[in-house]
Design a protein that fits this description.
The protein is mainly α. Helices cover 47% and strands 10% of the residues.
Amino acid sequence: MKKILRVFLSACVICALITGVGFAQGWTYTVKPGDTLSKIANTYGVTVSEIMAANPAIKNAALIYSGRKITIPSSKFSVYTVQKGDTMSGIAGRYEISLAELLKANPSVKDPSTIYAGQKILIPDTKSLASYEQQVFALVNKERAKRGLTPLIWSDTLGYVARLKSQDMVNNRYFSHQSPKYGSPFTMM
């Protein structure tokens, strides 16, 4: 069982590392001093050409200025308006994503404890994430079948823990079943 979990978690980590991140259609970003289109594109997981295509008024990628509002293209996020009493961890739990995933989608939130009612928060699209998870799950079961093992049955809890584990591995730069912060995946469950 540990070997199966190890394969599943490793596959989830690989998916987490290759999954691109973007923003909802019509999401507006205000350029800050020192920003470049390349830096903005890298931050939000899109290409410079995608940003330029969504902003036809930008003729030269090197000529953007602080204060300019640009559209960040994609449909991998939805926009949530913070309500009184909301917390980032509460919002993450409501949408069944990790706090780390929510913070990655919202780099402008420097301190997760200081959000305010009316603030717009981006929520990663769990459908696209679930699609990757399902692909990984199918690949794990394919490998199990090659070895004569019975297929695993999908568990939302296991998928959620695998996402947390893979994000923890990325954040803390390790590749092991033992997290320096959480211990083993079994402890996390």
